[in-house]
Design goal:
Elements lengths: L7 E7 L4 H16 L6 E8 L4 H15 L7 H8 L2 E5 L6 H10 L8 E6 L6 H10 L9 E6 L6 H14 L5 E4 L6 H11 L13 E9 L8 H4 L4 H18 L8 H14 L8 H4 E4 L1 E2 L1 E3 L2 E3 L17 E6 L11 E6 L6 E8 L19 E7 L3 E9 L7 E9 H4 L7 H11 L8 H20 L8 E2 L6 H8 L14 H6 L4
Parallel strand pairs: 1-2, 1-4, 2-3, 4-5, 5-6, 7-13, 9-18
Antiparallel strand pairs: 7-14, 8-12, 10-11, 12-13, 14-15, 15-16, 16-17
Bound molecules: 6-O-phosphono-beta-D-glucopyranose.
C-alpha cells in the first residue's frame, strides 16, 4: 500500500495454466497493467508442465475476457500486455529444471528490484518448489526475492507447521507472502481507516459501549466444481480459520503505533492470543456446523451438498460454520464475537455488525416504540460496500414516535472510481515489497491453534443431523441456539432485502 520504489520486477508464476491464474491472477495483472500500476519494467514467466508462450497468452486472454472487471480486453492494450508474458515448461518436482530456470531468469547485471515466485499450485507442491528454488540459489537475495503462497496452508496446525517449515528452511520470514485475499478487499482495508483515522470511534470501541459483534460472510453459491478441495476442507478451514478471523482481528485490535507491516500484524496477533481457548469438551457451546440440503437459490431448485458433483453421498463435511469467541483482554472482556459463514445461504452478503449496548434508562413513554432496534454500526464488506450507522430518530409529527433510521456511507456514491479487486491490491503490494496485508507465520499458527479443538471434535464425532439446513436459508437452527443461549439473536444483515421490501422498493 505504500508508494512503490520497485521499477523493475520479474514475476515467476508457478501454475500459470491453472484455475487460480486463469480466474484471478491473470485478470488482476491485466487490470494493473491498464491502470498503469505495474512497475515500469515488468515481465512474467509462466511455468507449468505443459505450456508455451502462445498457449499461455491464449489462456490468459480467455481468463481476462471472462473475469476482468474491465471486461473483454481492448486489442491494442492486450497485444502490449501479452508481450510481457513468456512461458517455461518444467516438472516442478524435478530439481534439474530449477537450474535451467535460473539461467532463463539471469539478466546479468541488470537485476530486477523484485523477483517474485508465486506458487499458484496445490500446497503439496510448495515444498518441492521451495526446495527447487533453493537448490538453484534463487532464494538468496533476501531483499529482492519473494515467495507467495495462498491457502490452504495445511488442514490443521501440524500440517501448517510442516508446510511453513519447508518454506522457512530456505526463505526468511520477510520474503514469505502468505495471502488471504480478504485483506486485499477495499472495504476490509477501510476498517483500519475508519477506526484509526477518526477520533470518534475509539472512545466507544470497547466493552462499556459494545454489546457484541457479529461477522457474517454468507454465500449463496454451492460447492460448485471444487469438490476435490472442499471435501477435505469444509467451512471452518475454508473461511473461518482465515478470512473471518482476519476480519475479527481488524475490528478488535489495539491501535498500531505506526502503519507498518509488523506493528499491525503484532496487534492482530494479540487478538488471536487473547481469544479464550475453546474447551475440547465444550465445543457445542462455542461452535455449530451445518450442511445444506436441497432447496432454492434465486428461484431455482438446487441440490443438497451430498447430491453435488463428486461429493460423497454420506459426506460429513460442513458447508456452514458458526463460532462464538471471547477475547480476554481489558477492551473486550465478556463481549462475544459471533462469526458465521456458509454456502447456499439465503443471500450473498458479508458484513460486520457492531451492536451497541441499550440505553441505561428509557425516559420515553412505552408507546414511542423505543428499542425496537438497537443502535448498531454495520461495516458492509460485499456486495454493497459501505458503512451504515443505524440509530433511533423521532418521526415527524405527533404523537411522539421513535424509529430506527440509517446514516449511510457508500463507496459507489462517494468515490467516482471502481475499487481495485483484492488480487490487484495484493499483487501490487508484493511487487512493492509491502507485507502489511499478508499473514505472518505466527498469525496463521495462532488461528489454527484456536480452532483445533473444534476441528478435532468435528472429525471425531460425525454430525448426526446432516444435512441440517435447506439451501436458501440462514443456516441450521443450532446456530440460532448458539446466540440465543446468550439472550441474543443473529442480527439480520443490513443488505437483506425481504420479500415485502423488494415489492415496495424499500430497503432497510
Ligand atoms: C475463498 C474460499 O477463499 O473465498 C471460497 O475458498 C469462497 O470457498 C471465497 O467462495 C469467497 O471469496 P469472495 O472474494 O468471492 O467473497
Amino acid at each position: 500500500m505504500h508508494e512503490s520504489t520497485t521499477n523493475h520486477a520479474q514475476l515467476v508464476l508457478f501454475g500459470a495454466m491453472g484455475d487460480l491464474t486463469w480466474r484471478l491472477i491473470g485478470p488482476a495483472l491485466y487490470n494493473l497493467y491498464c491502470d498503469k500500476q505495474l512497475p515500469a519494467r515488468f515481465s512474467v514467466i509462466g511455468i507449468d508442465r505443459d505450456i508455451d508462450a502462445e498457449r499461455l497468452r491464449q489462456r490468459w486472454h480467455d481468463g481476462v475476457s471472462r473475469f476482468s472487471r474491465q471486461g473483454a480486453p481492448d486489442d491494442a492494450a492486450w497485444q502490449d500486455f501479452a508481450r510481457l508474458l513468456d512461458a517455461h515448461a518444467m516438472d516442478l518436482t524435478d530439481t534439474a529444471g530449477y537450474s535451467q530456470l535460473k539461467s532463463l531468469l539471469d539478466t546479468g547485471n541488470d537485476k530486477p528490484d523484485a523477483q517474485v515466485f508465486y506458487l499458484a499450485v496445490p500446497p503439496r507442491l510448495f515444498g518441492a518448489v521451495a526446495d527447487g528454488l533453493a537448490s538453484a540459489d534463487l532464494h538468496r537475495e533476501r531483499n529482492r526475492s519473494r515467495i507467495v503462497v495462498e491457502k490452504p496452508l495445511g488442514d490443521c496446525l501440524e500440517a501448517f507447521q510442516a508446510i511453513d517449515s519447508t518454506l522457512r528452511a530456505h526463505f526468511e520470514e520477510k520474503q514469505i507472502y502468505r495471502m488471504d485475499h480478504f485483506l486485499g478487499k477495499e472495504t476490509v482495508q477501510n476498517i483500519l481507516a475508519m477506526r484509526f483515522a477518526n477520533p470518534i470511534f475509539e472512545p466507544i470501541w470497547n466493552r462499556r459501549y459494545i454489546d457484541h459483534i457479529a461477522v457474517t460472510v454468507a454465500e449463496d453459491i454451492g460447492v460448485g466444481h471444487r469438490a476435490g478441495y472442499y471435501e477435505h476442507a469444509g467451512a471452518l478451514r475454508d473461511m473461518v480459520q482465515n478470512h473471518l478471523l482476519q476480519l475479527m482481528c481488524l475490528v478488535a485490535m489495539e491501535p498500531p503505533v505506526a502503519y507498518d507491516a509488523d506493528d499491525i500484524r503484532d496487534k492482530k496477533l494479540d487478538v488471536l492470543r487473547a481469544c479464550r481457548p475453546i474447551p475440547p469438551d465444550q465445543v457445542e457451546a462455542f461452535a455449530v456446523r451445518g450442511q445444506y440440503a436441497g432447496g432454492w437459490n434465486r428461484g431455482q431448485a438446487v441440490p443438497g451438498y451430498r447430491d453435488e458433483e463428486n461429493i460423497a453421498p454420506h459426506s460429513n463435511v460442513e458447508t456452514y460454520a458458526a463460532v462464538k469467541l471471547l477475547v480476554d483482554n481489558w477492551r473486550w472482556q465478556n463481549v462475544p464475537f459471533y462469526l458465521r459463514t456458509g454456502k447456499r445461504m439465503a443471500q450473498a452478503v458479508s458484513e460486520i455488525s457492531i451492536r451497541f449496548r441499550d440505553i441505561p434508562h428509557n425516559a420515553f413513554p412505552a408507546t414511542t416504540g423505543l428499542n425496537s432496534q438497537p443502535v448498531r454500526l454495520v461495516i458492509q464488506i460485499q456486495p454493497q460496500e459501505g458503512i451504515i450507522l443505524k440509530f433511533m430518530a423521532k418521526e415527524p409529527g405527533s404523537p411522539l414516535r421513535l424509529r430506527p433510521v440509517d446514516m449511510r456511507f457508500s463507496y459507489a456514491n462517494t468515490f467516482n472510481k471502481a475499487s481495485p479487486g483484492a488480487y490487484e491490491t495484493l499483487l501490487r503490494d508484493v511487487l512493492a515489497g509491502d507485507a502489511t496485508l499478508f499473514m505472518r507465520s505466527d498469525q496463521v499458527e495462532a488461528a489454527w491453534n484456536l480452532l483445533m479443538p473444534v476441528l478435532d471434535a468435528w472429525t471425531d464425532n460425525p454430525a448426526p443431523d446432516f444435512p441440517n439446513y435447506p439451501a436458501g436459508t440462514w443456516g441450521p437452527e443450532a446456530a440460532e441456539r448458539l446466540v440465543a443461549r446468550d439472550g441474543r439473536a443473529w442480527l439480520t444483515p443490513s443488505q437483506v432485502i425481504t420479500q415485502d421490501q423488494s415489492q415496495t422498493g424499500k430497503h432497510d
